[in-house]
Amino acid sequence: MSEVGFSGTRAASVVGISYRQLDYWARTDLIRPSLCDASGSGSRRTYSYRDLLELRVIKSLLDAGIKLESVRKAFTYLREQADTDIASATLVISGNDVLLCDGDQLIDIMRRGGLGVLNVLAIEGVKNGLDDSLVQLAGGADAVIATQPAGSARAV
After folding, report:
1. For the whole model, what pTM was predicted?
2. Which CATH number fits domain 2-84+124-155: 3.40.50.360, 1.10.1660.10, 1.10.599.10, 2.40.37.10?
3. Preceding amide of 33 cis, omega within 30
4. Please, which pLDDT band fits residue 48 given cuts at 50, 70 and 90?
């Protein structure tokens, strides 16, 4: 089974962040590339579509004024506790609090309580924006196809 992958440079470009920021997030385990992680000098990270979606959500949360520490907590919760697929999740932002809308229930990911002004981040909208960016950048030379095992990838 093959999956299209994106180099770090292409991933940063598609998501709208700097390569330096992407590198920092990978080195600090906020988000690591799922197709091929760096394994020493000269190796290249390869990001999946889902990784790009998570990167775009992280950027959206930071752009909304959420602190990086809170974003880390939110993603730890989403990865470990939430049963929902991230593409269909809806996050509710209240100040520096991030809540997950799960059906009729709001789950306080930060566990701090107290609600003020709420901003809703429907991740489906972020996904659509990511898809539009990918269509615009289609045909890039640094997209790769990753094959099993995840460590082997070849340029398209």
Report:
1. 0.67
2. 1.10.1660.10
3. no
4. very high
